[in-house]
Design a protein that fits this description.
The structure holds two protein chains of two kinds. Chain A is built from 17 helices and six strands. In chain A, helix 6 packs across helix 7 and helix 11 runs antiparallel to helix 14. The two termini of chain A are 28 Å apart. Chain A is mainly alpha-helical. A six-stranded mixed β-sheet of chain B has the order 6-7-8-3-9-10, sandwiched between helices. In chain B, strands 2-1-4-5 form a four-stranded antiparallel β-sheet, with helices on one face. By secondary structure, chain B is of the alpha/beta class. The longest helix of chain B is centred in the middle third of the chain and has 20 residues. Classes of the chains: A mainly alpha, B alpha/beta. The interface between A and B is large, with 37 and 50 residues.
């Protein structure tokens, strides 16, 4: 927000009012055309099958008037708030103060996250919500590598989430297959290693690696695609994975899903009421909240790992190559950067974190079915990344908190929840089209200064 | 030891787009540690030749041989796009500047050192752990970048977004970025386009310094005849995809074929353009 503040008087050229009026009139005209039949005339089938209709011109006039006034209001709002950076109504002193405060925002959020199970120990609902938010924070950070850094629009991220979840569920159920050499034909036998209480800790990295493998497999066919085409193919990939899971009944149980997925253990110590459980060993009364607290810290640790790796990668040559690829692929090729491996590594890294999150999801729920991995999940995670500001770690965390937490907050509004949600999204996109945190921090400095690059310069990538 | 005096030898290069022949049976050589200029009227096929040399096009026919100082030889028409820069060490700039606008000047120069840094970071694994050898390699890379920023006078603006720099600075930054990849042959596509007289003077000095201090051979496409005549050691003239003249600047300038072809039939204007280089 601390960007050059354009002189507001220049914006208020004499034509502005006329422009707003014309636009509002046009909107009203469109509304009139649209609603004249939908609202203006009401038709019904009469008792003997004939058509009865009556007019509701009063309602129609009210709607059209509402559109006219609303259009003027929206346009005025746009003039005042403007797209980020052109014009601000907040004085520079306050925005500077805000930017100082935002430096402490991330540590403050982290401390708060660490204290959540302590503060809300008795509120299981809030703990559960916290776990859900953190899962989406992690997914957002994972997808941010692909979309925010590498600029590859991935609409099928949920596929890797599903691969991770099913990898964990299936391998925990059937055991980890280990090929063993033998002397007799066929010389290789497959032993299924049952992992017992260690299942989660062994299979977590395995799930991540399998998801990364699928990330590479998806990456190969889409290497040459850009923008919309890439988005469509990744979307299809997400659906293919879901449909395979849904239809491969023998293996995945199809629509019935997989139940009885082993719960995570505290490094081998189960969190159950028995004498061997954590509570029994510590000699304290068992409470189901223990598991919830453990799951909370587990997903917090996983999310922070994702964050740490993503931040580190961004400052490594590979991260700079991702960003350079987002800015200009042709220039990258001219500088000797292998676009193929760079793209695949971005897909694989993002997919791996999706896989970790999937394994966590499976162990938390104890039951998974294809219903949890629909396109809506991909869209939600992508919305979190875009809303947060592509490439910004803090922005993604804030967006996940707003989207998931806010959605729960408005549960009382019932069916109007979606309306509020949509309205907020529209306002945010008018006010900050580059997301909550739109600027980009350079990955390396010569003069050790805190500079940021305004979002006007940074490209979104064309896939 | 006698390494060929020619760093780049282009033989019978042809490039056809459907029925259009952009470059027809072109042969020329660029000498080691010299500045070779490729000139010609608009649409003569100069940029097409560049795109063939730097691997953006696969030529329809002919061969392009690059010989390093140590005698290592590369057939450019057989190398895949990014390997021409990475292995054969051919760097290029673009007619319309292609910096990474959202990244800082320093970051632009760091991206150019990708191959070196990637190896030092153990393909990201060692870098992720922050091993000291990678930190040293990164410090060295920053140092190389700082030297280049110093040379083009942009040290103070190192942490500014490349897209925010003035046009002339962007041109020079793109050349510095190409040089940061440690090229044996530097291909510049109209580096003086859009520069004023002072800026193109500074550009000439920069290119001469690159040749003299680093021993990098330069292949140059340029319309600004004052720059071409001042710094080129050798000029190749193209017209309609065919070479019409080849030699030292003085000889080329006086070549009646060049004068006649340069601006079509209007010989007076052509002479005027060529004379402006003196």
């Amino acid at each position: 927000m601390a960007l050059p503040v354009a002189d507001r008087s220049t914006a208020k050229t004499p034509s502005t009012f006329g422009f707003i009026f014309k636009k509002a009139a046009l909107s009203a005209l469109v509304a009139l055309a649209l609603f004249s039949l939908m609202i203006g005339i009401r038709t019904e089938a009469g008792p003997s099958g004939q058509l009865i209709y009556w007019t509701r011109f009063g309602d129609l006039a009210a709607i059209v008037a509402a559109v006219f006034v609303g259009s003027i209001l929206v346009e005025l709002l746009r003039q005042w708030l403007g797209p980020a950076g052109t014009r601000t109504i907040v004085p520079p002193r306050i925005t500077e103060g805000l930017s100082v405060a935002s430096r402490f925002l991330a540590p403050a959020l982290l401390v708060f996250a660490l204290l959540v199970p302590v503060i809300f120990y008795n509120q299981r609902y809030l703990l559960d919500l916290g776990i859900l938010v953190l899962t989406y924070v992690m997914l957002g950070w994972g997808l941010n590598v692909v979309v925010g850094l590498a600029g590859l629009l991935d609409l099928g991220y949920v596929a890797f989430y599903a691969v991770g979840a099913y990898s964990y569920a299936l391998l925990a159920q059937y055991g980890l297959p280990l090929p063993l050499l033998s002397t007799a034909y066929p010389f290789i036998t497959v032993e299924h290693l049952q992992l017992g209480p260690w299942a989660f800790w062994v299979l977590l990295p395995v799930s991540g690696l399998l998801a990364a493998l699928w990330g590479v497999l998806l990456g190969f066919p889409v290497l040459r695609l850009r923008g919309d085409y890439l988005a469509i193919v990744t979307l299809a990939f997400g659906e293919i994975i879901r449909l395979v899971i849904l239809n491969w009944q023998d293996l995945t149980g199809g629509p019935n899903g997989i139940s009885g997925i082993p719960r995570p253990t505290l490094f081998g110590i189960p969190l159950n009421p028995g004498p061997n459980g954590l509570a029994g060993m510590l000699g304290i009364p068992f409470s189901p909240t223990h598991r919830l607290v453990f799951l909370f810290y587990l997903i917090l640790a996983l999310a922070l790992l994702t964050n740490w790796v993503a931040i580190r990668l961004r400052r490594l040559p590979i991260g700079r190559a991702w960003e350079a690829m987002r800015e200009d692929e042709v220039a990258c090729r001219a500088l000797g950067i292998n676009i193929t491996t760079t793209k695949l590594s971005a897909f694989a890294t993002g997919a791996m974190f999706g896989g970790f999150a999937g394994a966590f999801f499976a162990t938390r729920q104890g039951f998974i079915s294809p219903e949890s991995f629909t396109f809506q999940e991909s869209a939600l995670v992508l919305a979190i990344v875009v809303l947060g500001g592509m490439g910004s770690q803090l922005g993604v965390a804030l967006a996940a908190l707003t989207m998931i937490g806010g959605f729960e907050l408005f549960r009382g509004l019932e069916q109007y929840r979606m309306l509020v949600f949509g309205g907020v999204m529209v306002l945010l996109m008018i006010w900050r089209p580059r997301g909550l945190v739109g600027h980009r921090a350079p990955s390396v400095f010569l003069h050790r200064e805190r500079t940021t690059i305004s979002s006007d310069m940074v490209k979104e990538g064309r896939g | 030891m006698s390494v060929s005096p020619d760093i780049l030898t282009v033989e019978h290069l042809s490039m056809r787009f459907g029925g259009i022949v952009a470059v027809n049976d072109l042969s020329f050589a660029a000498k080691r540690r010299e500045i070779t200029a490729l000139i010609g009227p608009n649409g003569a096929g100069k940029t097409t030749v560049f795109n063939c040399i730097t691997g953006f096009y696969r030529p329809s026919g002919g061969s392009m041989r690059l010989v390093h100082d140590d005698g290592a030889t590369f057939q450019l028409e057989r190398l895949h796009d990014y390997r021409i820069s990475k292995v054969a060490k051919v760097a290029r700039t673009f007619q319309n500047i292609r910096l990474f606008p959202g990244m800082t000047a320093l970051e632009n120069l760091m991206v150019a050192q990708h191959a070196t840094l990637m190896r030092a970071s153990g393909f990201s694994l060692l870098g992720l752990l922050g091993v000291p050898s990678f930190r040293e390699a990164e410090a060295r890379a920053i140092d190389v970048a700082r030297q280049w920023l110093d040379r083009i006078g942009l040290v103070d603006r190192a942490d500014d977004a490349a897209g925010n720099l003035p046009y002339g600075d962007q041109r020079r930054l793109e050349i510095a970025r190409a040089m940061c990849s440690g090229p044996a042959l530097l291909c510049l596509d109209e580096p003086a386009a859009g520069l004023n007289a002072t800026e193109s003077g500074a550009l000439s000095d920069l290119l001469l310094a690159i040749r003299n201090d680093f021993g990098t051979s330069i292949l140059l496409i340029e319309h600004d005849m004052s720059v071409v005549m001042e710094i080129s050691d050798h000029i190749v003239v193209l017209d309609h995809g065919v070479k019409i003249s080849d030699g030292e600047p003085r000889a080329v300038r006086d070549d009646p074929k060049v004068v006649a072809a340069y601006l079509g039939a209007d010989e007076d204007t052509a002479i005027e353009v060529m004379e402006s280089g003196t």
